[in-house]
Input
Amino acid sequence: MSAPIQRDSKVFISINEALKASSRLGRLITLENELSGGIGAEKKRPGYIDKLESTWNSFVQDQRISFSQAQKNLKDCFSKCCRSPIQRTLPRAVSDQMVSWIEMARSMQELNWIRDSILKDCRTLRIESAPASKSSVGKFGPTLLVGYPNPGQQQNSWVAYVLKWTDQRETAGYMVYEAFLSAMRQPHFSIPENIWYDFQRNRSMDSIGLLKRLDAMIAEELDGSSAPIPPLLDSFFKVYRNTPKNRDEIQTPLEQKLHEADPAEFRYGDLSEEEVEELRSLIARELKRSFHLIPSSLDPSIKIHGRQLLVLERLNGENLGEFARFKYKDMDIEQKQHLFRLFGEIAVLDLLLGNTDRLLQLSSAEDSLLAIDSEGSNLGNLMFARNKEGLHSVYPIDNAVDEEFIKSPVKREAYLNFLGSVFGREGFEKGLASAILVSLRNGFYCYPSDLSKSVAKGEHFSVKTVAKELEEIMGLKCAQCMQGKQCIKGECTEGDLDRLFVCEALEEGIAEMTVQLKELAPLWQSGRAEFFKAQLHEIYPEYLQALEERIAVFDG
Output
């Protein structure tokens, strides 16, 4: 834990990429929503693109045309082409948005850039797959599943990720889970790759796990570029200067200068120190505005309350409920053993770090007394994704830590007592394994019914079948079988013995993770963890204090 977590990020490598991707995505979403409004797939490639391009080219070839006339011609050309009775693939709303951009242009160069941008968006648009969809609306804002064509790459190359507006409980949770897993020897599960931005507190976690000031990251990209106009600033010009703004939105001399400057002639080095500082803040503000454009393009009524934006690797797989429905039936006994061993490991790490919304949930008869609840596991917070070897990798997701046991002194103390009672007794593995089995069984019983189409095709495997199997495991009482020995009472069949080995795997996973956490406790207390703890203190100091107390339970 003495060094930043090294990550080969599949989401955003830099602020520059984030700004370009988010602004472009907002336009793609708007076009997608309009173009996919009940039009058949065979009609979704608008013929107006070629018409618009040829018509505009004929205008600009006339050297005598003035800028104002060119602006009017492009606006008329775009409006007429898109509103033609024959070409109804681009409704009025999108046309109005693009026309407003044209009206804001101040030079022929800007007109050409807007025209090229419109055409590029239309050409790269993949109508058959929406670039973003609303997964859910949470407490702090929407969770969006995102995908859009990767510019300059092959046609089937896509950028895919998840945008989630959240708070410090989740960003700190992802940071801590990743840190603990990176410090373990050969962990069997992973955390989705992630970065995040906190626009209000001017903080960001970069792609290698370093916490930085957001404007400092922007400054690094600006100062570290040898190009006449740094890539980030070039992206900023294209987004900021060509986004319609009212005159009252241009409030400072720098903003006026940016709107009037020719991007080809603008030099970052010509700015004063005060203007450089203002420019950094302006780009950070534009980054926030650009990201917020995405949900409003999907639904203007969506409200965003989260202080932080989490950008996650988009996993190509299914949650535990869907995995049980379609994949569990094909697993052999060894694969099931591996699966339940993972469940044991994840449950123990969850208990230490404070996630009570996955395999195990907690209840309290009173504030000072906690116990494991039998309400059922949240099957949606475990994802299964196929890896390069064709096997299924397991990813805990939604790794927010429970704030209830952090901020309340009484409940924080109760949580420590609970951890001590669970892991302090001899043979705790069996009791915890039994609690996980009950929770999983109830989670499967509460999972939504199977889809009728899957049932009709004979492709389903009811999750209730998994629940029944777990119930049978819990009902086996032969002590000899529980020790993996041959049944001397004749009470258990060979299949029963197989299922008991699954139960044994759960206990093995619990024991393995407990040992690893005990091994990590001295490392946590050493100076090698100071860098990580300093970062966590800046993000969520109360959680760092609670975590220190919990680790002491394992160290004791």
